[in-house]
Write a structure and sequence with these properties.
Strand 3 and strand 4 form a beta hairpin. The radius of gyration is 31 Å and the shape is elongated. It is built from 3 helices and 6 strands, in the order ββββββααα. With 137 residues, it is of the alpha+beta class. 2% of the residues are buried. The chain folds into 3 domains: 37 residues; 29 residues, no CATH class; 44 residues. It is 38% helix and 15% strand.
Length: 137
């Protein structure tokens, strides 16, 4: 349905209304003062195609609905269904948490196997303010 702009001749309030083409000349009442609004001549609103983006797989520039659909087909991908993106984020977070736990267990095991003198020196450095961070790329 097209979008039409109407303006009240009394209070100058404007409103945009979706109407069928055959209903475009029906009078619309002003929500502010109640008088009949007149249809205004305005530029058509054009809805653009898909915004361009870099393909996350190849880096190639994809622009437009047709190119987007072809790119999905070429790589065996599809558009995510509602709620599916949240599930992907949840699974990724669970995987990250499991990896963090595994790293911590490995570090604990390594520290336990250190000779006593080295372990005590490491503990003293950490207690003295040594900032230890795990950085993954």
């Amino acid at each position: 349905m097209p979008l039409y702009r109407y303006k009240c001749p009394t209070c100058s309030k404007q409103a945009d209304l979706f109407r069928k083409i055959d209903e475009r000349d029906l009078l619309a009442s002003c929500g502010q003062c109640g008088f009949a609004m007149n249809r205004q001549l305005s530029a058509p609103a054009v809805r653009g195609d898909y915004e361009g983006y870099a393909c996350p797989i190849t880096g190639a520039w994809i622009e437009g609905r047709k190119a987007h659909q072809e790119n999905l087909r070429r790589h065996g991908c599809r558009v995510l269904e509602p709620g599916e993106k949240d599930e992907v984020i949840r699974r990724k977070a669970a995987g990250e948490a499991a990896l963090d736990h595994s790293i911590e267990a490995t570090v604990d095991e390594f520290v336990e196997t250190l000779p006593t003198a080295k372990r005590e020196k490491l503990i003293a450095e950490v207690e003295g303010g040594l900032d230890v961070q795990v950085v993954r790329n």
